[in-house]
TrEMBL record:
GO terms for biological process: cell surface receptor signaling pathway. InterPro entries: Adaptor_Cbl_N_dom_sf. This is Uncharacterized protein. It comes from Jaapia argillacea MUCL 33604.
Length: 93
């Protein structure tokens, strides 16, 4: 599947194994997004709009997951946590 297809981000997130994420907060975010994907798949009205929102969320979370890929948990330092917190605050504005 191409990175440019509309379903790549949700598919990437939906297929992530739970033990691949080294940051507990990010792991929780992935679980929430997986639940959102399931809900959107069951939605009947406004399904396209809901999928657009979930796709954007998946792109954000997927970018974070990919950027941390291969980093052992013990190497994930406070600076990185601070960066993620700042990213979260920026996205919530």
């Amino acid at each position: 599947m191409s990175y440019n297809t509309p379903n790549f981000a949700p598919t990437f997130i939906a297929n992530l194994a739970d033990d691949t994420i080294v940051v507990p907060e990010l792991s929780a975010a992935v679980q929430i997004v997986k639940a959102l994907i399931e809900v959107v798949q069951k939605v009947k009205a406004h399904k396209e709009d809901c999928m657009t929102v979930v796709t954007h969320i998946c792109e954000i979370v997927g970018t974070l997951v990919k950027s941390l890929e291969g980093i052992p948990r013990e190497e994930f330092d406070k600076g990185s946590r601070r960066d993620i917190d700042e990213f979260r605050r920026f996205k919530l504005r």
